[in-house]
Give the backbone structure.
Amino acid sequence: MLQRIFLPYFGAVIFALLIGAGCSKENPTISTYGSITGVVTDSISGIAISGAAVLTNPATSNVTTNTSGQFTINGVNAGTYTITTSKIHYNRKSTEVSVTASNTTNAYIALSLVTVNIEWITIPAGNFTMGSTTNDLNYNYDELPQHTVYLDDYQISKYEVTNAQYQAFMDDGGYSNSTYWTTDGWTWRTNSNTTEPDFWTSGNYNSGLAFPNYPVVGVNWYEAYAYCKWAGGSLSTEAQWEKAARGTDARYYPWGSTWDGLKCNSNDNVLPDTFTYSSQVGYFSTGQSPYGVFDMAGNIWEWVNDWYQSDYYGISPTSNPTGPTSGSTGHVLRGGSFYGTSTNCRSAARMYEYNTYLGDKIVGFRVVK
């Protein structure tokens, strides 16, 4: 009796297991990942650029490139990504792509060669009045004596060097080419392993590519010197800077001899000055100099080429002075800043800092040639 009951039951169990096994085949797994593929080309020739760096934001670790400029990014979660490509001598470029699961998104990026894009103002040859007198309001002793200086004609950048213009220097290998730097500057750069201005990555104080038309800040004298040499010019001398700022009529400020907080970005913070830090270059159009140079009062302090010497004006040449041949205190700064008072923003006002001073958030520069 037991035998009759057991065998059919056992057979049923085996049959059920076989049926279950036959039905347990899994459905194909649907991937939650996608991929990105593309090529980096020259914007003019259309030829692929080998050796370009490719980064994504959000970051991924599966970027592969080949010698023909093609790249592939596998295993990417679905979502939106910013792809940034860069190569020395080319302007870096970013593009946004959307990735969907189990699909490949194409991203073709054309890079343009780095060019120097500076607008120049010509300052004519001739005499101008440099420095201050003891009868001037708010003079400093290192501005004495007031004296007449002759300068050959030259050109000065209409605006302070911007973040976008400085990025071109970085893209062109400015921090990896020692020929742009002084010997001491290159030693500082390599020892400090500096590859960008202070605050550049964080974006603080209107720094970096999120603020393309704001003046670059957080650069020391060595960095300013290197940029100017790369751009085919130099930092201005004190005399060149002051003439471009005040003209030939010995005015106190670029716009005239009376302080007007409406005409620059200073600590007065009166409308239209609503800026906590620097303003876009050229924002205060009514404050330009007699030659049409912008932001020479307030906004940021600007490095010039001269070593600082407090009594230099007493021995300065009367024709094309270039400042002391050496110094121990550092180089001169001109122009005041957004923290500046009316005294700091005078065209004759002088300040100095050591060459490695990064300027916190208030120091940049402009170029002459």
